[in-house]
Automatic annotation (TrEMBL):
Source species, domain of life: Bacteria
GST C-terminal domain mapped to chain residues: 84-214
Provenance organism: Thalassotalea loyana
Lineage: Bacteria, Pseudomonadati, Pseudomonadota, Gammaproteobacteria, Alteromonadales
Domain GST N-terminal, chain residue ranges per copy: 1-79
UniProt protein name: Glutathione S-transferase
InterPro entries tied to this protein: Glutathione-S-Trfase_C-like, Glutathione-S-Trfase_C_sf, Glutathione_S-Trfase, Glutathione_S-Trfase_N, GST_C, Thioredoxin-like_sf
C-alpha cells in the first residue's frame, strides 16, 4: 500500500489524499510535518516540503501534482485527466493556478486563522486577515467564477484534477471560517457544494476533523 507523508490539514497533502479517495485507491498516512528530518521523508522530499510519497514498490518522490500524475498512470479507473488534448491542457493549467495564485490567497488566511494558531503558536494578525479577505481572495474567486461553465465541474462534464486542486483550497477557506458569497460567486458556490457532497470530500474532512479535535 502506498504511503503519503505529511499532515492531512495541509492543502497539498489534502489534494493528494483527495485524489486517492476519488479514485478509491487505498493509502496510508505517515504524519510528517514540513521540514522533518525523518529519513524516509527526506529521501522522498529533499526540499522538506509535504507531501512526500512512497509507492507500494518503495519508490520515493514528492509534490502533490507528481503524486496525482503517478497515480493516474498506475490506476486508470476514474481518470482525473481529460482524454481530449484541449481539456487536458485546461485541467493542468487550472491545477497549476490552484497550486500557485489561488493557494497564495487561501493559505494566507488559512495560516492566520487555523494553521498558525493550532500548530505554530502564532497569534492571528487581524490586519493581515483583513487584507487577505479584501484584496487577495476576491480576485481569485472572480477568476474561478468566470471559468465555470456548469455548476459541477471546471472541465467538461466529469471530475478532473482541476476540481480536486481547486476544492482543496476552498476547503482551507472553510476551515478558516470564510464563507463564499453566493450572490457574488454563485457558480463557485454551486461547484463547491457539489464537491462537498462527494464521498471523497466527506472522508477527507472527517480525517481532518480528528486532527483539529485533538
Amino acid at each position: 500500500m502506498a504511503t503519503i507523508l505529511g499532515v492531512p490539514a495541509s492543502p497539498f497533502v489534502r489534494k493528494a489524499m483527495l485524489a486517492h479517495l476519488v479514485k478509491q485507491v487505498p493509502f496510508e498516512i505517515k504524519m510528517v510535518p514540513p521540514g522533518s528530518d525523518d529519513e524516509t521523508f527526506r529521501q522522498a522530499s529533499p526540499m522538506g516540503k509535504i507531501p512526500g510519497y512512497q509507492t507500494d514498490k518503495g519508490t520515493l518522490f514528492s509534490d502533490s501534482s507528481v503524486i496525482i500524475a503517478y497515480l493516474e498512470k498506475v490506476h486508470t479507473d476514474t481518470p482525473l485527466y481529460p482524454s481530449d488534448p484541449e481539456q487536458y491542457a485546461q485541467a493542468i493549467w487550472l491545477e497549476e493556478y490552484a497550486d500557485t495564485k489561488m493557494s497564495e490567497a487561501t493559505n494566507a488566511l488559512y495560516f492566520q486563522r487555523v494553521v498558525g494558531p493550532a500548530f505554530f503558536e502564532h497569534t492571528t494578525d487581524q490586519e493581515r486577515v483583513t487584507q487577505v479577505i479584501n484584496e487577495l481572495i476576491p480576485p481569485v474567486l472572480d477568476f474561478l467564477e468566470g471559468k465555470l461553465t456548469s455548476g459541477n465541474y471546471f472541465i467538461g462534464d466529469s471530475l478532473s484534477v482541476a476540481d480536486v486542486a481547486i476544492a482543496s483550497n476552498l476547503m482551507s477557506l472553510t476551515r478558516a471560517q470564510y464563507t463564499i458569497d453566493d450572490n457574488k460567486w454563485p457558480k463557485v458556490c454551486a461547484f463547491y457544494n457539489h464537491f462537498l457532497s462527494l464521498d471523497a470530500a466527506k472522508q477527507q474532512l472527517a480525517t481532518e476533523d480528528k486532527i483539529f479535535s485533538r
